[in-house]
Design brief:
The protein has about 230 residues and is of the alpha+beta class. It contains four helices and seven strands. It has helices spanning about 1-15, 20-50, 140-145, 190-200; strands at about 105-110, 150-160, 165-175, 185, 205-210, 210-215, 215-225. A hairpin with a 5-residue loop joins strand 2 (about 150-160) and strand 3. It is rod-shaped, with a radius of gyration of 66 Å.
Length: about 230
């Protein structure tokens, strides 16, 4: 308590010692210095920012330009590569069409022996002299079947050195109504086209003369068309 009293006494003595109005002047002096101090602080901050630590600066090396040499690109092809094999596709099973038609009997035979054919050399061909090794039965014409007609066609052709047929032509074509088989045949061309197509498919044994195969012209052949009777 004694110390506090002593301190209060000293402050009181100091106040008494100062002249009147000194505190007021002191306060106005601080107010006048405030702008100057603020300006100094501003300048100090600017200098601190401009000259302060800018952080770590990473310095690097400059790498020289890399130049790649020009190289030719060579493309290798394997010439020994075999092309892929195409898969074999089996043909679809197609059922043959069923036709409800009247049974037909078609026969092919040699021309009658009493018919003479001009061979160019004047010789006469006898029945059985030229017998085909392979023959295809002709297709019965639908128009003739619908009309109930039957008949025969005699054709002639050339047998080549290989036994095939060339230049077939019709010598005679006859037909009659199947219901009147006792009646006479009449001239008609109803079976000619089917006969010529079948004649082109005949195969014969080649004719050999003097040790070599030769062609034979004007060889006759007869195709007969008959309709079977229903039992």
């Amino acid at each position: 308590m004694a110390k506090n009293k002593e301190l209060d006494f000293n402050l009181e003595d100091l106040k008494n010692f100062l002249p009147e109005g000194a505190e007021e002047q002191k306060r106005w002096g601080f107010i006048a210095l405030a702008p100057f101090v603020g300006f100094l602080l501003f300048v100090f901050m600017v200098l601190l920012v401009s000259t302060g630590d800018a952080g770590d600066i990473v310095k690097g090396r400059k790498i020289g330009d890399v130049i790649m040499p020009d190289r030719e690109i060579e493309t290798l092809f394997d010439d020994d590569v075999e092309p892929p094999e195409e898969p074999e596709v089996a043909p679809p099973d197609i059922a043959p069409p069923q036709l409800d038609v009247q049974p037909i009997a078609v026969s092919a035979s040699k021309a009658a022996p009493d018919i003479n054919f001009n061979q160019g050399s004047g010789s006469l061909f006898r029945d059985g002299e030229y017998i085909p090794l392979f023959k295809v039965q002709p297709v019965y014409p639908r128009r003739a079947q619908e009309r109930g007609m039957e008949g025969y066609v005699i054709v002639a052709f050339t047998i080549t050195e290989s036994g095939t047929i060339e230049e077939p032509y019709v010598i005679e074509g006859k037909c009659r109504n199947a219901k009147n088989r006792d009646g006479a045949y009449n001239d008609c061309s109803m079976f000619n086209s089917a006969t010529l197509r079948a004649a082109k498919k005949l195969k014969y044994k080649p004719t050999v003369r003097d040790g070599r195969a030769v062609a034979v012209e004007d060889v006759p052949h007869k195709f007969t068309y008959e309709i079977e009777e229903n039992s």
